[in-house]
Amino acid sequence: MRRDGAANREKVLLAAEHVFAEKGAAASTDEVARRAGVSIATVFRNFATKQDLIEATAVRYLEKLTAEALRLADGQDAGKAFASLVKTLAAAGPVKMTLLDLLPPHDDDGQGLSRPVTEAADAFRAALDGALHRAQAAGAARSEVTGDDVSLLLRALAYATDLSEGEALDRAVGIVLDGLGVPR
């Protein structure tokens, strides 16, 4: 792919992330093109259908969260690193859940998703589980907590959170971290 084509694709994906997060299923590809500063033809040159654009946006977002999870988990203090990760994921959760809700019907294990989405979701989950296990090994998280527990709590926070609820979200994340036995 040419450099300008790759740059346009990235602009479209970034714009799509914001448009889909704001408008959900009502988001239009015209709005994505407008925000990206490209023509609608450029959007469809990169993504044959709106569903292809949604999937690519979800994959890109999951990959970004995975990279952040791996970066945070590498912190020297496993407990503080896991607490930072939970805070980061809680704040990112509403966008993630909106994108995943726009995908075709699927179960909680990702059955029914395309291969790229499934692979990105699996990598994200592995990064989350790795950070949890590291915190548990350091005695900074309750040993009986599972990745499924943390994932459920993060999904609940995502669905219950409005992005403008900064203080309420901070308190809720603090309560979740207390319950997980993670020092803040």
From TrEMBL:
**Keywords on record:** DNA-binding, Transcription, Transcription regulation
Positions of the DNA-binding region = 28-47
From which domain of life does this come? Bacteria
Q: Which InterPro entries match?
A: Homeodomain-like_sf (IPR009057), HTH-type_TetR-like_transc_reg (IPR050109), HTH_TetR (IPR001647), Tet_transcr_reg_TetR-rel_C_sf (IPR036271), TetR_SbtR-like_C (IPR049445)
Where does the HTH tetR-type domain lie? 6-65
Q: Which residues form a coiled coil?
A: none
Gene3D superfamilies assigned = Tetracycline Repressor, domain 2 (1.10.357.10)
**Record GO terms (molecular function):** DNA-binding transcription factor activity; transcription cis-regulatory region binding
Q: Which Pfam families match?
A: TetR_C_43, TetR_N
Protein name as catalogued: TetR/AcrR family transcriptional regulator
